[in-house]
């Protein structure tokens, strides 16, 4: 928000210096980001009089001017043609620095000495374009700085407002704050204008179809308008706050918007088909706005329509088909209140952010609607010679009742650490336009909240206002007091932390993704149509279509991470995410949020280096990570079932992991179709675990055995088996003998090839034997080992090689 010192003084009589005002505004919560002193560095540009204007002897387009600067006569060469002898002009003297760091020097131009420059409005940053030099009004004192003589010196403040302070998006709103600071009254001029035209009723009508999106709409009809340029005071005021002058009518709507904070719009009435206004959602259609851009509207977009179609995007921008034109003579002037959420959604979707939408989407003042309309009508009558029709169309079907909030004395002082009286609190709140209702005068006040402060919703908001108005620097500095209590970490929390640390120790990097995903991720990972993971919780107000539902799996998000990294040539990826997923529960508002651990491995097994082999990660690398997790959590009775898996994993290269009958998760290579859906061209291995199942399967009963003092003995045996017999089946068969002399069984070699029959494989197994009580004899070891061999022959039809 941009405002000037002089504009504020029109509404509040204060004596603060520009610097003090900036400090007081900042301390009141309206942070001043920038101060600019208009004309302060241009005192060397003075009022001067042209004593003579002669043609340059060496150039047809130049003139040689003799100039009286109030103390001396100097010669200046000028390239403009709009000046004559006797004119008062703006003379930039030698040494002056003009906007853009342009330094004026004494020079010779085509042989003639030039001691300065005659300036245009553009060169003094008073206008974007100029047709010639600046011709000043008669009667000014020679030698006086131009900005001072024309009363153009001012101070411009740029305020960084927080989104909740929509009331300060106007000069009057900021002036109200200044009045509260200095203890003065806010001066609002009385609106006086004559309604000399005929009644408005027979001429036009207003209908609100969607009352929720437009609770109030007011309009006036002004005839006999003469479109033309705005007067200098209006042009300069708009340009001072960064707005470009267009014409007298449009400039008035912009001026009133900045003054009162209420956006307005003027329609060329002869272009309104049917001569009526209908506020409705026109549905899916195309509409061209004032900036010449075409926009596709949807069913939720609110528009101002005539009898046939849209003529403006409600609260955002007018339409090209009803804009004010040089030949416009009759104007319908609009002032309305629109629902902030509706304006914000349409503005964001269409990519149109305007001064109007900026105010409506933060919450305008519904009760300023007729005031702003009358203010604009009065100015148009004055500046465009308009005739205002009798009456105003003010459609306000459901009047909004003022909110009432109580504020307690004790609570206010407790929170702020102050010792204010109820009278002081009352004075602070009344100074910013809040009205006091009936209340317990000794303990609390009941405050009626005006419609220009939609941000005040609770008692704590009023307490914050008291703190702000009393001065944040008045709040005493105290050290916070608190108690430290010991908190017992739950086993589940400790286990989740341990899982994270174990994954990081294994060389993985943790990622944290949004819990919102696109609704089409289920198709991309090939989930079946009846898969429970397709039942998503929908976001009511999604930021984008790619974040429309809550995720039921971590897999899609991790695959997006992989795809993005591969696109940036980050090929060696070890990533994991341990976060909740979300499943709806029938009949309940809150979802079920089980935690999952999902990890992926792709690219090199080890970082690139001179002593690394350059091998790629494979299934067994990730299986080893999973086994390390299971070992850490003491999960017994593990099974790796290749018969069952997930649709997003490669059949035959994946498995289901379980402990007893408890399913823990899945492990395997990514399905080629899923990889193609995510533009992943390299083999990728994925581990997905249910954290709750891990905690349930964990064996917390630890049994410690003493370390044997006696040596171990191992026997190696090679068996010829059917090639479809899994390693798990072999190890389970060997362990079924349950001999207390067996310390470990290791499968250390598998061979298929020359010398091995088709359909068979050779498996080498090492069995370690050790006793806790004595050194084992060869006969004891042979007896137990022979029993193992016979078990293999009987159960698996194995042949000892």
How would you describe this protein?
This protein has a 7-stranded mixed beta sheet with strand order 29-32-33-37-36-35-34, sandwiched between helices. Strands 3, 4, 5, 6, 11 and 12 form a 6-stranded antiparallel beta sheet that branches. A 5-stranded mixed beta sheet has the order 14-17-20-21-22, with no helix packed on it. Helices cover 25% and strands 26% of the residues. It has 20 helices and 41 strands. Strand 39 (742-751) and strand 40 (760-769) form a beta hairpin. It is of the alpha+beta class and 801 residues long. The N and C termini lie far apart (89 Å). The model has no long low-confidence stretch (mean pLDDT 90).
Short description:
With 801 residues, the chain is of the alpha+beta class.
Essential attributes:
single chain, 801 residues, alpha+beta, 7-stranded mixed beta sheet, 6-stranded antiparallel beta sheet, 20 helices
| Bulk shape | elongated
Instruction: Report how far the terminal alpha carbons are from each other.
Output: 89 Å
Number of strands: 41
Percent in helix: 25-40%
Major sheet size, sense and barrel closure: 7 strands, mixed
Radius of gyration, in angstroms, nearest whole number: 41 Å
Tally of separate helices: 20
Which band does the percent of strand residues land in?
A: 25-35%
List the uncertain runs.
none
Mean pLDDT: 90
Strand line-up of the largest beta sheet: 29-32-33-37-36-35-34
Structural class: alpha+beta
